[in-house]
């Protein structure tokens, strides 16, 4: 196949490009900034359908591996920022893909949409603008693609690994904490985890099969205590991880929300309701995820083997 990858210079995007080429597909790599390995520099948040059609001409499939993540804390109201980064570019991209006759697409999303689907009583899209944008991303993308262009949505948890100088966006502060002399504290709960290589394998398989499914990706489920312990071990500064009471987590998040309100900012995941997620075990069955059940230890070691900025 000929496949165009949007966000090809990112951590996961680079692994997707590499895996596609290992499978002997032709790849057009697109990223916001021109750099080695990028065929076209294009900002997907501003690109028109006409510009995207010109890039997509002659391709069979497309991967959207860009977007805005939940660390962003824009000025209130924040939803337009997440819509502009996650929803609008996917709708335009898949409109262009449909008009060019592409036969398959993959969108890299968030595992929050998996829990939104499995637990509607949690009201995740109502309470958290970022999660709403991911739900709308999948809906708007498939609506734009139409019935003849299957769109697989990969629902990603914590992703470990490296790709050149690219690392997970959240890795640096965790690395500094793990290497410091500060005590390690973890609340109850935990999260699914995967690796950039696993995501790439699932993405390429979804393209080859033209699956059009929602695919929660998971290699291993980790409690927060286990995750911190493994990160500290990878930095060479392993020490006990002590329990952080749930009441302290809730109080800290309330203060975070107050500070944001005082500065006119709004998080994509509302601190007033975030403890309901952080204190749960946001686990995904690896056998149902599209990736094989396996340890993420090697990818954690790869992520934190050197001090990060």
Automatic annotation (TrEMBL):
<dbReference type="Pfam" id="PF13460">
    <property type="entry name" value="NAD_binding_10"/>
</dbReference>
<protein>
    <recommendedName>
        <fullName>NAD(P)-binding domain-containing protein</fullName>
    </recommendedName>
</protein>
<dbReference type="InterPro" id="IPR051783">
    <property type="entry name" value="NAD(P)-dependent_oxidoreduct"/>
</dbReference>
<dbReference type="InterPro" id="IPR016040">
    <property type="entry name" value="NAD(P)-bd_dom"/>
</dbReference>
<dbReference type="InterPro" id="IPR036291">
    <property type="entry name" value="NAD(P)-bd_dom_sf"/>
</dbReference>
<dbReference type="GO" id="GO:0004029">
    <property type="term" value="F:aldehyde dehydrogenase (NAD+) activity"/>
</dbReference>
<feature type="domain" description="NAD(P)-binding">
    <location>
        <begin position="7"/>
        <end position="139"/>
    </location>
</feature>
<dbReference type="GO" id="GO:0005737">
    <property type="term" value="C:cytoplasm"/>
</dbReference>
């Amino acid at each position: 196949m000929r496949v165009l990858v949007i966000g090809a210079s990112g951590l996961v995007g680079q692994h997707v490009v590499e895996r596609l080429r290992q499978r002997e597909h032709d790849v057009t790599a697109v990223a916001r900034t021109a750099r080695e390995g990028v065929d076209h520099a294009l900002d997907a948040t501003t690109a028109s359908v006409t510009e995207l059609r010109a890039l997509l001409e002659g391709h069979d499939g497309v991967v959207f591996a860009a977007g805005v993540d939940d660390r962003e804390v824009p000025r209130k109201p924040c939803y337009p920022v997440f819509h502009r980064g996650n929803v609008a570019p996917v709708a335009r991209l898949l409109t262009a893909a449909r008009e060019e006759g592409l036969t398959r697409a993959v969108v890299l999303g968030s595992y929050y949409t998996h829990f939104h689907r499995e637990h509607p009583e949690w009201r995740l899209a109502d309470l958290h603008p970022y999660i709403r944008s991911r739900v709308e991303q999948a809906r708007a993308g498939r609506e734009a693609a139409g019935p003849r262009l299957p769109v697989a949505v990969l629902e990603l948890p914590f992703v470990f690994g490296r790709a050149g100088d690219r690392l997970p966006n959240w890795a640096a502060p965790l690395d500094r904490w793990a290497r410091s002399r500060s005590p390690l504290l973890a609340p109850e709960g935990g999260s699914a985890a995967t690796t950039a290589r696993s995501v790439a394998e699932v993405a390429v398989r979804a393209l080859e099969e033209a699956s059009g499914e929602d695919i929660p990706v998971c290699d291993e489920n980790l409690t927060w205590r286990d995750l911190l312990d493994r990160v500290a071990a990878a930095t060479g500064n392993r020490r006990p991880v002590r329990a952080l009471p749930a009441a302290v987590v809730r109080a800290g998040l309330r203060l975070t929300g107050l500070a944001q309100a005082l500065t006119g900012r709004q998080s994509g995941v509302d601190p007033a309701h975030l403890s309901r997620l952080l204190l749960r075990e946001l686990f995904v069955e690896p056998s149902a995820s599209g990736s094989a059940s396996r340890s993420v230890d090697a990818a954690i070691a790869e992520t934190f083997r050197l001090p990060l900025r």
